[in-house]
């Protein structure tokens, strides 16, 4: 089996799993976007996925996002991993969205980077969509902001005209029930949407907990291993 055939088979299976999970929870499958996560896989896989109808992928590292966005400018690259502030400028040049906003410091770095990219015409002519990474357990080692830190972060975002709050992202901590974590994140997303008076995304669910995320209301599922296979 060629790599293209393998990816096509895996992609079809995951799309079918999303449709099934949506039906089981009474949702419209069209409300849920699949974001294949290509971290630690070669840029050539992005090209194969593009030919299979994928128009957006997720990346953890800024340097890999830059490479893949440069090689395949017709595929949107979402940054889903932690971003060091010294790499914010590069991130803002290539990211279609950032799912891992978790600090005031990063918000300010992304604001500066986005303003610079727009001013210089560096692949950006509009504000950068950002999702707040919600930390369910408050463990700083895993990234994310606990609920107690949200007021300060949201206040900082209100002063960042080049960033647009687009929703919530979460990763369940080990040992916690994914459904519980996703429900808390969905509640937070709904609160953001009510306050902003516009729809918000919930970026939740990976290969092992996709069904629970869809049931909780996820609108973006980030699937790596089930599509790309074991990490290289």
From TrEMBL:
Protein's recorded name: Pyridoxal phosphate homeostasis protein
Pfam families: Ala_racemase_N (PF01168)
Chain ranges passing through the membrane: none
Domain Alanine racemase N-terminal: 33-230
Known role: Pyridoxal 5'-phosphate (PLP)-binding protein, which is involved in PLP homeostasis.
This protein's record includes keyword Transmembrane: no
Organism whose genome encodes this protein: Corynebacterium antarcticum
Family: Belongs to the pyridoxal phosphate-binding protein YggS/PROSC family.
Modification sites for N6-(pyridoxal phosphate)lysine: 39
PANTHER family recorded: PROLINE SYNTHETASE CO-TRANSCRIBED BACTERIAL HOMOLOG PROTEIN (PTHR10146), PYRIDOXAL PHOSPHATE HOMEOSTASIS PROTEIN (PTHR10146:SF14)
Keywords in alphabetical order: Pyridoxal phosphate
InterPro entries linked: Ala_racemase_N, PLP-binding_barrel, PyrdxlP_homeostasis
